[in-house]
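Expect chain and fold; see below:
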Amino acid sequence: MSGEVSEPIKKCSLILKNAKSDTEKFAALFMVTKLIKGKDCNQAGKRLLFESIGFDFLRKLLTSKDVPDDCPASVYQSVALSILSCFCDDEQLATHQDMLDSIPVFMGIVSTCDDDEYDDNLIIINEAYHCLQSISLYESGRLALRQHDVITKMAQIYTQRSFQIDEALTLIVTLVARFGANSWDNDPKLFHALLQRVSLDFETDHAERKFELAEMISSLLFHCRRDLVARTVQGEIWPECLYKGISDILKSKIGKAQRDPALKLAANAVDVLGIEWTLHDVENPKKFFLLLLQLAAIEVRMQMDNKSFNQCVQQADLITACFIILELSINFMSTDQLDLDQKDKQQVYTGLKGAFSAVLGVLVKLANDTKKDRLQKTEKAFAYAMVRVLTAWLAQETSAMKNQVSKVLPFLFKLANESFYESRDYRIAHKADNVDDHEQQPPADILRVMLPAICHLVVEEEARQIFLKEKEEQVLYDCLLFHWSIAHYKKPPVPRAERLKRMNEPDPEMTPQQLDDMKDSRTAIVSLCNILMNITVLEAKLVEESTLFAQLLRFIFENLPELKDIPDNLVMHGHLAVLGLLLLKQQASKIKKNDFSICRYIQTTIRFLWDAYNIDESNDPQALVVSMQYKEHWFEIMELWFLGMQTMSGIIKLIPWISEFAIESGWAEGIVETLRKVKIGTLPPNVKLAYEDFLSQLVDANPAVAPVLKKADALKVADLLHREHGFSRELANETATNYLTAFRRCPDNPDVALAQWRSQLWQDVLPGTHKHLASELYGRWLEWRYRYLALPVEVQTMLQTLRLQYLLGIITNGPTAAQWEKIDRLALNKYFDCILVSSDLPWAKPDRNIFYAACHYLGVPPGQCVMIGDKLETDIQGGIEANLGATVWLPLPTEQRIIGDRTMQDVPEHVRPDAIVDSVLKLPAMLPPSTSFRGRRPAEAEVGDWEQKTTRNRAAQYNRILPEIPDLYSTYSSSSNDCSQHSNGSNSSNNSS
């Protein structure tokens, strides 16, 4: 039986117990070694022998210096270690307290492995390592090894010794895998020294050991103190050694056994060092980046295409490593720091699309699987990893694979929500710990990384309806509350009994982890605000009636005024303030005048809007500039500021008593004084428009404002005629109507300056006694004209989103001066890559050549362009004759009768578009998928040439200096049919107005 002890072992045990001296017992030990290695020695036999020998005797052999003159101590140590290494194979003996207490002895032996004493006795070192490694196989053993600081000592051995260091590295990796980042202290020097030595070995070794080292380095990086290593790696050589070693592997002809560890190591390297680590090659920095990205994409496709979820889980480590590479690469490319040519972009897009099609396929199968609600821990972790990498892609390529994404979106929300609540509950439960615990990491929060993608998804009609059906707004509200509790940190209350004692003590410093959490939560809140803003604008009726959005508004009212006024909070403050304004506008009917919380909120929001621009901080006392405290973050909050000003103006219409805050705070008067001080012509038109629109609404809402604003001539043109100049209402209306008639008949005269011509038009319609008002009225009319022509916020957002994926262009018929004024005043240059005015060219719509000119300047074949226009006889007909890839008709409101009960057949054949849309906001859903990764410049165009083609010469007023135009007709008419065969090959949209 397995529990019976053999007779030889019993006899040996009896001899050991009856030994009358150490010499007799020592002699009997030679029998023990042979018996332990015999086939009849079971666990019970080993334990009997161990007890019979007694650990005191073995320790004496290991440590005693009292040995015969002709017998070196190493002989006794060798015998003892030989015995112990045999016993260590048994868990009970390996974790025996006497064995654990001998760890320092084993460490002492292996740390002297380079000494002359051990040159001729390699067995002693091997068996000491064997004992340590056997101990490390069990939890109590690992805890004991950590207590004796074995990781530090082994790292020192590896970095300083030359003999049998692989055993030391193996032991380090084993322990680090158990204790994670807590294996390392706050001083990164030892970690960097260890990585330097092992990375150098990895780079220079060309045998199979190279791939073993790859796996070990990968584990060390995965379990390191990432924040600390990333901050202190500057100047270290080991990242370059890793780069060279991995590059050598991936550029060689290798098999799966060699490629897999290299990909895993590369993933951990970019995760710790950042994706910029892949750009080490000075001569061709993008080469290795593209190689790694393509290999990761191919591997994902190979491992996941047409595979089940269970099959993919078996390769989860490798696939997840590739996910890390893909996610970080996508995020890096979105910053436009990498100069990729058109061929590179196409290859990257093709590779990524194939990879994410495979990921989506597995997610769809999992979503339809009955086991999706019973996933094991490792399975759930892999499912989270799939959602994470997919949403990183969707955050950049919002139009990619819409149908597949819509099918799986409810399941994605379900997984993300589960992960959020699990992570939130864990972090709340451990909030009081206030320590940097690198071993106990909180569960993954997939919803947090999904937020940027959700922001884009809710703009799409189908995805937004799924979002609302799943009641995801409630989850986001919970998410906002949680992240607010972190971002708006308050020190824990001091018990009453300790207040006096702590009165003069400084506040405890926050840990690096707390500071990182606060930063991340601020970013999360900004993303949440963007999502909720989109919902508020696009689902106005729902928001107006929603109890949840009323709670959200109440939360902002009550909490935003309490936010600390520090630079780190500025962007978050602005987003919450403007979200509050949008919600307030929708729920204006529910607001009570005696609600004190709204008073504090409005005051706080006014402060945000008021402080953005400043004259005193400018070098020029007559120039308005962005305030210093806003300048660092202005790119993030510029559009937000304009949206806030616009929404505030709208709120004053709905809730007139809010205007009192603008008066009492001095803001209205401050704006007037600012407009007075600023040098004429230097104020940005959009800023001036925002201020004047707001002041105009104040005049309409509160008569007390008019005397203040009169000083700055800020009243509407209609009011000027009626109130200021004594015109009757009828005469004022007649005069304005006559001017508009003359203006529309001839808005521009090439022989006269634009302002002079329009002032003349005013002079012609004014009564004789008031002709001197012509210039003043023209100036006021012009400002109000562009106030009403300004693009709605949702259209601006749509154009910004489209331009991330497509090339955009405008073709417009009309006189040069008038059309370019419109383009400049509306700031359309920032949305479009090419703008053509017919008067600048030999052609006008519907001449096909003007469409070919746009294709030429954009560097895109006609068959890959989409024409969007409101006139059938110019826009659509011209697009058809130019053989563009598609035409979309956006009828004017008076023409929209063709949409609905009538069909496309009601449109004449020669001007029949491919599609009709009744709202410009529906365009994104109709456009073909993007196939270029955020590309906006043709690869073959030089920068100077591009600028010449897409911007007019500002030195010549309203006269575009054109480059020599080639024979566009022969160039494109012969190839347009071929191009139209591949209309999905390029993401460019030729937008016409």
About this structure: Residues 591-632+646-713 form one domain. The chain has a mean pLDDT of 80. The radius of gyration is 37 Å.
